[in-house]
Structures are given as C-alpha cells and as structure tokens.
Amino acid sequence: MMLTVWLTLPAAEVVKAGELAIDDPDARGALKGQFRYTPEYLENPKAFPLDSLHLPLSADIFDADRPHAGVHGVFEDSLPDDWGRRLLIRRYKLGRKDQRIPQLLRLLENHGLGALSYVEEGWLDFKTTGVPLRHLQELALLAEKFEQNKAVDNDELSLLFQAGSSPGGARPKALVKDENGAYLAKFASARDQLDVVSLEAAAMELARKAGIKTADSRLLALGPRKCLLVKRFDINKAGGRNHLISMQSLLKADGYYYAGYRDLAEVIKHVSTQPGQDLHRLYRQMVFNVMIGNTDDHLKNFIMLHNDEGWRLSPAFDLVPNVGFNMEHVLRIGYDNTPPDLETLLQEAKYFGLKRQQQTLEVIMEVHEAVSEWSTVFAACNVPEKDAESIGRDISRRLEKCSR
C-alpha cells in the first residue's frame, strides 16, 4: 500500500510532506513499512521534521521497524484508540484482516487529530472536521446506544460517524465545532461507577488554579446527561493545524513499557524550543497528578505540539482523579510508581531544571494549596456527594503525604 502524507501548516497551507509504503503482511502477519519526505517538502522553507528524534529532514528512506503497525509512531498517533477505532470498524464494516494500521489510516483520511492527512490517491477536502455544537444532545444519545450495542443501523449512526471517528481513548466522545472553534466533547460511559465527566471538569479547573496551562474546557448539561467540552489545541484561529506527536512515539515505547517522568524530561531537553519552560511545566503537572491522584498518566497523555513557536509541550488534558482506585501511577516518579512523598518530589526537581529547593517548594506548595480546594471545586462542578467523598479521601491522603 502507498499513502501520501499531507501536512496542514498553522497558516492553513496544505503541503505534501511525504510518502508511506507498506508491504503486505508476511506469513507471520508482520508488516514492513517505510517513509520518505518528498523533495518539494525538503525544499520548503517552512518544513520541519514530523518526528524530531526519528524522522530528521533528509532524503533518506526511514524503516518503521514496527512489524505490528507497519508505520512510525507519529503516524499511528493520528488514529483513535478504542472508541474511535470501533466507530471506524463499524462504519466501514471491516473484517479482522482489514483492521490494520495502514488500512485505518487510509480510511481516516483527514479526520484525525493533529495536522496529518492520508490519501491513497487523488486529493482531499481539508476542511475542519466535526459537526455543529447544536447536535451535542443527539450525539450523547447516539454514543450511549453505540457503546451499549443497542440495535441501531448505520443511517442512524451517521452523525456519530461524522463526529466521532478520530478522538483517542476508550470513553465515548465526539468532535464538534461552533463559530468560536473546535472541541472534543466527552460523554459519560455506561461502565462508569462514578460521575467521571464532572470529576474531570473539576480536575481541569483545579489544574488551572494550580498554575498549569490546560486546554480550555467547560461542563455542559444535556438534559439528564453531562458533557465536558475541551477546546482542541491542534486547530488554531486561522483554521490551520498544529502538528502533534505523543511522548509514546518519541520514546518508541510500544506495548508494555516501563517509563517515568524523567524520560519525558529528557525528550523535552532534546525536542522543545523552550526546554526550560516546558520542563518546569512538566514538573508542576507531575506534582499535580500526584496530589489529585491522576494515576492514568500514560505516555499518550503527554504531547509535543508544533506551531509557529516550534516544538512545545502541549496544554494539559485528560486530567482525572483516581476513579479506578489504582494506587500506582503509570509513569514512575523517582524509582517506582507509588505515590511519592514530599522528599521524593524535592529530589526529582533537579531532573526538571529546578535547582533551588526554595523554588521547588514554592511550586509544590502552590499546587498543594490549589488542590486543597477540591471540595469547593467539586461542588461547583456538581460532583455527586458520594463520589466527592470517596475521591476526596484519596486526595486528602495524598496531600498529607506531600506536606510532611
């Protein structure tokens, strides 16, 4: 299979960036894939590496060395995870052999998050994806039906197919837009034991109070349902796109991985155009994740974003308290994944460019003070009392551990 990779620049200009070539699977199902930049892209003064660590600007042919996916991680980042893939599979009635990454990219075309689009041949209409915000209540109902495998035909699901093919993660969501911008709409899941939508809204608000740059978000009531709207940071005011790549792809951490916040710090040192600022931002977010109990801090929840400034750490997103009551973080903090104490947070600071203990203590105390307002913010976000009590106990324990 041959796919042309198109890149939408921040100024909304669309350029042909490169080509993907993927062989048919071998007898064991392994895929061999390669990527090369087009000569015209290499000559473009606006060109930049799609992956600074693994795809430098060069006329070389780059082997993917990913037999399961067949493409480099930066291209797989365009694809959704569980929820969006289920929609793609249902929409196109894909059998098992047609659910491989290259086939999904071909079907995704220009509907993915980020700035990349994929074409097997011809030209695409590169308009912003998403459906009008006024359809939110209908989308929430369709998402609920689809998740619960209720009897619905593809005609009824057409709006959901249009709005929901690209977001990552396993929870129901959709892409919507209005005159002010484009958003990711996040709905409740039938599997939720707690009011996750309100808890995430509260966590995002607490993060802002803690001095963390987050994606803009707001909580909406949709009749008996709720929705969290998160403004997309891959689309700018000019209608252009900001390219993105996950820390998972930058670290080449496929499958089960054992990584820590220090690993993210090392990537920032090599990739960011403002490494000092981004390292401090990452440290503050790590401290916040510890105190709020955001243990689902996996590598796909950390993104490097390319805009007119160059490569920068993206705004924080997917900040959710520990709704699964898993005490261990996905990422190591220090030498293990258990919630750290104050001494560990202080010791870790040097890996993030914080050399003075007083400066580090100020960051920790600012985050501590903000997260301590959890009960007030939970109430403002209409978190049910029973949920606030159970999550609040975990937060209080973490806050105490970080203040000794």
Structure summarized in a few sentences:
With 404 residues, the protein is an alpha+beta fold. It has 14 helices and 13 strands. A 5-stranded antiparallel sheet has the order 4-3-2-1-5. A 5-stranded mixed sheet has the order 6-7-8-10-9, sandwiched between helices.
SSE layout and pairing:
Layout: E1 2-8, E2 14-22, E3 33-37, H1 39-43, E4 62-63, H2 73-76, H3 82-92, H4 101-108, E5 116-119, E6 131-132, H5 136-147, H6 158-164, E7 173-178, E8 181-187, H7 196-209, E9 217-222, E10 225-231, E11 243-246, H8 247-250, H9 261-271, H10 275-292, E12 303-307, E13 310-313, H11 342-348, H12 357-371, H13 374-380, H14 385-401
Parallel strand pairs: 6-7
Antiparallel strand pairs: 1-2, 1-5, 2-3, 3-4, 7-8, 8-10, 9-10, 11-12, 12-13
Explain what this protein looks like in three dimensions.
The protein has helices at residues 39-43, 73-76, 82-92, 101-108, 136-147, 158-164, 196-209, 247-250, 261-271, 275-292, 342-348, 357-371, 374-380, 385-401, and strands spanning 2-8, 14-22, 33-37, 62-63, 116-119, 131-132, 173-178, 181-187, 217-222, 225-231, 243-246, 303-307, 310-313. By secondary structure, it is α+β, with helices and mostly antiparallel strands. The protein is globular and about 60 Å long.
